[in-house]
Structure formats: C-alpha cells, structure tokens
C-alpha cells in the first residue's frame, strides 16, 4: 500500500513541471512555431527564481523573477524567430545552451557549485488538505503538493478553455493552420505567434520555479534534464490539445515514478531504470505517429 | 559562386561573432574586468604562440568531425541532435576496446581497431532514430534528444558498474593501454589524430561538393517533397546521411578518447559537449566543409583560450560558453540576404507592404523550418 501511495504521489510530483511546460507550449505548436526553447525557458526560470530567493529570501520576488526571466527568453525567441524570421531551431538550441552558460558564470562568480536555499524548508510549501490526505489512493494524489503543482492541473482546464472557447485560441490555430489565409482576413499573424510563444514562456517559467525553488530549494545546472524536450514530445503526441498533451505528460510522470519507486528493489541494475521514461516517450511518439499515418494513403514521402 | 555571394556569406558568419564578442565584453566590463585585456589573452595564447596554436589544432581535430557530422544532416534538413550521443557511445566503447584488447597487439592495429569500434558504435546509435524518421515520420529531433538522455544514463550505469576502474578515486573506466594512445608529436598536445581528422575532412569535402550525394543533400535541404517527387529515394538517403553523421561523430569520440582523455569519465565530452560544439561550428561554417574547418579551428582557439583566461585573469572561463551561446543565437538570423543586400531587402519589404495594403493579401514566405 505504501508503495502504491508513493507511486501515485510521485506521478503527480514528476508530471507537474512537464504539464506546466505542455499547457503553455501547445500554443506555439498551434501557431505553427516550433519552440524547442521550452527547456531553456524552464531552466532560466528555475535559475532566476532560486537566485532571487537566495538573495532576498522572498518567495514572491522569486516567483516574479523566475517568470520575468522566462518571459525575457520568450521575447528574445519572438523577436529573433518571428519578427526577424530567424531559424527557430537554432534560436532554441542557443537559448538552451545559454542557460547553463549564464548560470555557470554567475555561480562561479558566487563561488558556489549550486545554489542551495538553506533558509527555506520546502516541506512548509506543501499544502496538506485536511481530511483528504488520510484517504488511501486519493490522498497522495490530491494532497501534500506545492502550490504550483495545483496550478499545473488547474491550468490544463484553463488553457483548454483559452484554446477552444475564446476568439484568441481560434485565431492562434488559424494562424498556425494557414498563415496566408489568416493574413487575408486581416489578422496580425506575428502578434498571435508572439503571444503564443510568450504564454509558453510564462508557464515554462512556472515549471522551472516548481522544479527548483518550490520542490527542492536548490538549483544545479542541468537539473531540467530534458523535461522541456519531453514536453515537446508530449505536445507532438497530443497534437497541440492541452488536455491530451497533458495526459502524455502524466504518462511520463508515471513512467518516471515507476522507475524511481521500483529501482529500490532492483539492486545493482537500478541505475538503468532512469532510462525507462525517455524510452517510453520515444515508443509513445512512434505509436502515435504510426496510428496517425495509417489513414494516409497518398503516395510520397512528405505526406502525413 | 559569385564573389559577392561569398563575401556576404562570410559577413553573415563574421557579424554574429563580433556581436557576441561585444555583448560578452559588456558582461566582462560589468564585473569590473577589462574586456580588451581578456580577449587579448584569449587570442594571443591560443593562436599567436606556436605551442598554443598546436594545442588549438589538437582540440580542433574532433570538432572538425562533429561539425561535418552536423552539417551533413542539417544541410539536408535532418535535425539530428544525436551527434552528441554518437560521440559519447563511440568514445566510450573505443575506450573499452583500448583497455580490454590485448596490449600485445601491434600499436597501429590496436588504434585502428579502437577507431573502428568507435565508428561502428556511432553509427549504431543513429540507426533507431534514422529508421523511425525514414519510415514512420517520427520527429528525429525529439527522438534523438530523448535517446541522448537515455544513453547518458546507460553509460553512467556501465561506468559505475561493469566497467568501473576500481583503482581510481572517482567514476571512470580503466585507462587505455599505451599502444592505443596517440602519442604527442611535439611538446604541444597535437597528435596524429589531427591528420586522421583532416583526411576525413578531405573525403567529406569531395562528397559534399563534388558527388551525386552532395547534390542530393542540397536538394533535400531545399525541398524534400520536390526531391521525392523527382524520384530521389528520400527514405534511403535519410538513413545513409544519418549513418554518415553517426560514423563521423563516432570517429570524433573515439579519437578524442585515444588522443586526449584516455578513459571515460562522466564529463567525457565536456560542457556543452563535442556534439553541441559541432552544431555551432556547422552553423558558423555555413554547412560548407571549408567553412567548417576554419570554424572548428576558431572554436578550438576559444576553448584553448578559455583555459588561459582562467589562468591569467580573474574572469570565469564560463564567459566563453556565454559567448558561444550568443554566437549561435545571432547566427540564427541571416542579417544579409545572399542575393539581395540589406538595402534591396528593405526596399522589397516596403513595396511588399504597399501591395499588401492594396490587395489586402500579403506575400508570405513560410519561415517555419520545423514542420518540414
């Protein structure tokens, strides 16, 4: 029973930052902008928030700094990729590399190997819902998580509404599906693309804060460990639907949770369990792609 | 190619570099150091002394290979991020071969075997993403990125377990035998591996510039649907190109192992890693082999210079990584068009605005390389 509870708890725990990335990242996908800088936006959010809390001891300022830093990255991405029409893949790679470079530079200046918030007790940030936390199965899922984890799950619904029940969401998809048509309707396509990217930056910043400050009180370089790319894979699989994409993010969280919880029983091979989540994601991507292409009967390489 | 086109291409690579150095200089100045002095250390110690220059060439050897590995894929529109993984896998098993093969083998034979192991491993690593891309249209970028993380975990597992050197105080594999090591040519770090790398460069130069495959790479990069419609076997070409890339990257990893590292540690490829460096080099060199050769040497000079910055000034050497990131960022935007100058481009844009206003249907060019 304990094992089941901890698997469920860890599933939510590991899914949350990826869900946060996904629900914002879907907009760029819908607007037909390939944003592979999700990883970098998450990383810079994590770094900026931890650094700010380290110096100011204020969680609110940390939250603001994390979001702001991610938005700055989003703005750079927008200006270079949309306004100046640069190659978005290269910009994404550059931003991802810049995070570790900037953080490394600052940390060397500070003479530390990682930023650790000793004044912060992360278990204080966990919200324990009285009554529910005692219920088996439901308890570990719903109770005892930090606040941004709840934001992530509420955000799925919010972003679904924004995407499918507002004019803005429709316009973003129109821009993504056919930019020429959108332009002929008088839509400012660049505007919608940029806003889509910035929404992604905002939620990725939150994901970074969730990952570093809120859960561990710690920033180390490389702590995002490819979660941004997992989010991209989830978005691909869910084809830009916030709800479906989030389900794939939860699937990844589940795989990771399983690998961590079962590794205890695996003895010396436990190191290999870390591989499972990434392999699961590749397999899921393959399955989704195959089922999508089964209906395509036209000849040629590029169809589908 | 017209002289003007070449000139604009060179400028397109030079301007981002200069911009990045300016921004880096502002950062250096903001922490109270002298940027000119720092840059002078960077350049003089890595390019202007004989020993420094040979060290630079030594570091350039694997970078030429990873740069080519990236270029041969990116130019064809295949965004293979698995070069880093191929480097790691090739380097790891070249190191294992070097340590476990009988040391009594002929040294040349031993080195060749190790390099061969590296090449094969580098190719094996890209087989899965290549097949998925060619036959199922699974995005190669996401797959290779995922597999890079998975691979790093596997290699960590192997080097902490089965292949751990028990005598060492930290996690690493056993040191390769003396016969497998490339010996230094002079007092500087340069080893014969540099010439192997140069040989690979010559081969790739002819493949990319003077062969049918090279033409097909360009065609695929320009428009893969057209290439397919014209009867090119795109699927097979994707697999071939990714295998070539894997082989080059594997060779880079193996050579780096035999000429510099001698055993696999968890930071074998450095930060950000030889594969990622290769991406910058390929972009900087505009995917042309000669450009890549020059870019690799320039980049290796940054690497050598970074160590010297650490020795001779109080600026953290991470500043070089920042500059590298900025170079890539600025490279993403083509500031000057190859065919039109900035002026023509501006004029074109204005006239486009006019016509767009009149017909209310603007001329659009799709710049999203991602969905291709």
From TrEMBL, chain A:
<dbReference type="GO" id="GO:0022857">
    <property type="term" value="F:transmembrane transporter activity"/>
</dbReference>
<feature type="transmembrane region" description="Helical">
    <location>
        <begin position="147"/>
        <end position="164"/>
    </location>
</feature>
<feature type="transmembrane region" description="Helical">
    <location>
        <begin position="191"/>
        <end position="210"/>
    </location>
</feature>
<keyword id="KW-1133">Transmembrane helix</keyword>
<dbReference type="InterPro" id="IPR001851">
    <property type="entry name" value="ABC_transp_permease"/>
</dbReference>
<feature type="transmembrane region" description="Helical">
    <location>
        <begin position="61"/>
        <end position="81"/>
    </location>
</feature>
<feature type="transmembrane region" description="Helical">
    <location>
        <begin position="88"/>
        <end position="108"/>
    </location>
</feature>
<feature type="transmembrane region" description="Helical">
    <location>
        <begin position="36"/>
        <end position="55"/>
    </location>
</feature>
<feature type="transmembrane region" description="Helical">
    <location>
        <begin position="247"/>
        <end position="266"/>
    </location>
</feature>
<protein>
    <submittedName>
        <fullName>ABC transporter permease</fullName>
    </submittedName>
</protein>
<keyword id="KW-0472">Membrane</keyword>
<dbReference type="Pfam" id="PF02653">
    <property type="entry name" value="BPD_transp_2"/>
</dbReference>
<feature type="transmembrane region" description="Helical">
    <location>
        <begin position="216"/>
        <end position="235"/>
    </location>
</feature>
<feature type="transmembrane region" description="Helical">
    <location>
        <begin position="12"/>
        <end position="29"/>
    </location>
</feature>
<keyword id="KW-0812">Transmembrane</keyword>
<keyword id="KW-1003">Cell membrane</keyword>
<feature type="transmembrane region" description="Helical">
    <location>
        <begin position="272"/>
        <end position="290"/>
    </location>
</feature>
<dbReference type="GO" id="GO:0005886">
    <property type="term" value="C:plasma membrane"/>
</dbReference>
TrEMBL record, chain B:
<keyword id="KW-0472">Membrane</keyword>
<feature type="transmembrane region" description="Helical">
    <location>
        <begin position="86"/>
        <end position="103"/>
    </location>
</feature>
<feature type="transmembrane region" description="Helical">
    <location>
        <begin position="238"/>
        <end position="258"/>
    </location>
</feature>
<feature type="transmembrane region" description="Helical">
    <location>
        <begin position="109"/>
        <end position="132"/>
    </location>
</feature>
<keyword id="KW-1133">Transmembrane helix</keyword>
<keyword id="KW-0812">Transmembrane</keyword>
<dbReference type="Pfam" id="PF02653">
    <property type="entry name" value="BPD_transp_2"/>
</dbReference>
<protein>
    <submittedName>
        <fullName>Sugar ABC transporter permease</fullName>
    </submittedName>
</protein>
<dbReference type="GO" id="GO:0005886">
    <property type="term" value="C:plasma membrane"/>
</dbReference>
<dbReference type="GO" id="GO:0022857">
    <property type="term" value="F:transmembrane transporter activity"/>
</dbReference>
<feature type="transmembrane region" description="Helical">
    <location>
        <begin position="279"/>
        <end position="299"/>
    </location>
</feature>
<feature type="transmembrane region" description="Helical">
    <location>
        <begin position="52"/>
        <end position="74"/>
    </location>
</feature>
<feature type="transmembrane region" description="Helical">
    <location>
        <begin position="12"/>
        <end position="32"/>
    </location>
</feature>
<dbReference type="InterPro" id="IPR001851">
    <property type="entry name" value="ABC_transp_permease"/>
</dbReference>
<keyword id="KW-1003">Cell membrane</keyword>
<feature type="transmembrane region" description="Helical">
    <location>
        <begin position="190"/>
        <end position="208"/>
    </location>
</feature>
């Amino acid at each position: 029973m304990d094992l089941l509870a901890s698997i469920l708890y860890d599933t939510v725990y590991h899914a949350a930052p990826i869900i946060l990335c996904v629900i914002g990242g879907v907009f760029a996908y819908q607007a037909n902008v390939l944003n592979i800088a999700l990883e970098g936006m998450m990383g810079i959010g994590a770094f900026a928030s931890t650094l700010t809390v380290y110096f100011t001891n204020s969680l609110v300022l940390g939250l603001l700094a994390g979001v702001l830093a991610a938005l700055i990255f989003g703005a750079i991405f927008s200006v270079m990729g949309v306004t100046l029409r640069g190659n978005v893949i290269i910009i994404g790679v550059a931003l991802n590399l810049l995070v570790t470079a900037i953080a490394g530079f600052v940390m060397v200046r500070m003479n530390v190997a990682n930023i650790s918030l000793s004044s912060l007790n992360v278990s204080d940030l966990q919200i324990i819902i009285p009554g529910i936390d005692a219920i088996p199965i439901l308890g570990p899922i719903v109770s005892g998580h930090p606040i941004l984890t709840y934001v992530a799950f509420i955000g799925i619904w919010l972003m679904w509404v924004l995407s499918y029940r507002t004019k803005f969401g429709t316009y973003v998809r129109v821009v993504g599906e056919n930019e020429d048509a959108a332009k002929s309707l008088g839509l400012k396509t660049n505007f919608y693309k940029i806003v889509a990217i910035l929404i992604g930056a905002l939620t990725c910043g939150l994901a970074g804060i969730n990952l570093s400050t809120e859960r561990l009180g710690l920033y180390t370089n490389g702590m995002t460990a490819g979660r941004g790319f997992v989010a991209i894979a989830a978005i691909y699989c869910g084809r830009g639907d916030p709800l479906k994409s989030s389900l794939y993010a939860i699937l990844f969280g589940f795989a990771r949770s399983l690998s961590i919880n079962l590794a205890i029983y695996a003895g010396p091979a436990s190191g290999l369990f870390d591989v499972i989540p990434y392999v699961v994601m590749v397999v899921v991507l393959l399955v989704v792609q195959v089922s999508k292409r089964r209906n395509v009967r036209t000849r040629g390489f590029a169809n589908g | 190619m017209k002289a003007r086109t070449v000139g604009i291409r060179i400028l397109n690579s030079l301007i981002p570099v200069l911009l990045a150095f300016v921004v880096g200089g502002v950062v250096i100045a903001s922490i109270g150091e002298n940027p000119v002095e720092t840059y002078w250390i960077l350049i003089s110690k890595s390019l202007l002394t004989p020993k420094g220059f040979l060290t630079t060439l030594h570091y350039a050897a694997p970078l030429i290979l990873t740069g080519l590995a990236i270029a041969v894929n990116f130019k064809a529109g295949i965004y293979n991020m698995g070069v880093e993984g191929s480097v790691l896998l090739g380097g790891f098993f070249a190191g294992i071969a070097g340590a476990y093969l009988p040391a009594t083998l002929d040294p040349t034979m031993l080195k060749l075997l190790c390099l061969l192991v590296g090449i094969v491993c580098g190719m094996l690593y890209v087989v899965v993403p290549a097949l998925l891309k060619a036959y199922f249209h699974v995005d190669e970028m996401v797959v290779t990125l995922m597999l890079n993380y998975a691979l790093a975990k596997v290699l960590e597992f192997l080097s902490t377990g089965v292949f751990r050197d028990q005598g060492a105080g930290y996690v690493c594999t056993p040191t390769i035998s003396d016969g497998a090591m490339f010996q230094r040519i002079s007092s500087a770090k340069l080893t014969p591996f540099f010439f192997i790398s140069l040989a690979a460069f010559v081969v790739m130069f002819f493949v990319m510039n003077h062969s049918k495959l090279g033409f097909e790479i360009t065609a695929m990069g320009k428009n893969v649907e057209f290439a397919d419609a014209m009867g090119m076997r795109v699927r097979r070409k994707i697999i071939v190109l990714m295998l070539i890339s894997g082989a080059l990257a594997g060779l880079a990893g193996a050579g780096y192992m035999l000429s510099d590292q001698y055993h696999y540690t968890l930071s074998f490829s450095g930060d950000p890693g030889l594969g990622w460096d290769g991406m910058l080099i390929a972009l900087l060199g505009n995917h042309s082999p000669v450009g890549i050769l020059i870019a690799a040497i320039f980049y290796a000079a940054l690497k050598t210079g970074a160590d010297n910055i650490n020795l001779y000034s109080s600026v953290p050497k991470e500043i070089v990584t920042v500059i590298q990131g900025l170079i890539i960022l600025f490279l993403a935007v083509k500031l000057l068009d190859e065919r039109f100058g900035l002026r023509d481009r501006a004029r074109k844009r204005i006239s486009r605005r006019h016509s767009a206003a009149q017909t209310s249907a603007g001329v659009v060019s799709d710049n999203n390389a991602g969905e291709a």
